[in-house]
Amino acid sequence: MTVYLSAFAGAGAQFFTDDGSVLSGGKIYTYAAGTTTPQTTYTSISGSAANANPIVLDSGGRLPEDMWLSEGVKYRFVLTDSTDVQIGEYDDIAGVND
User: What count of other Cβ atoms lies within 10 Å of the Cβ of residue 39?
Assistant: First the structure.
């Protein structure tokens, strides 16, 4: 399987609240672009292990593993705080160089 590093939440990405605080315990829900159909992301370039959906951010507002996206697939991401209050929505995102 070919996967590409996420342009939305690639290596070392860090997320913040609207007031600039670190988004500790925030969540990233991953869907097929333009839908509410869950779409799998992967933890490494091998594409062999899936991330949880939602992905829960650590205390530093970072993903516990990298996010890699399937080749030829566009994604929709919904970013929320730890209580599922939506912070942002990002649609039609492909992997880097895909």
Answer: 18
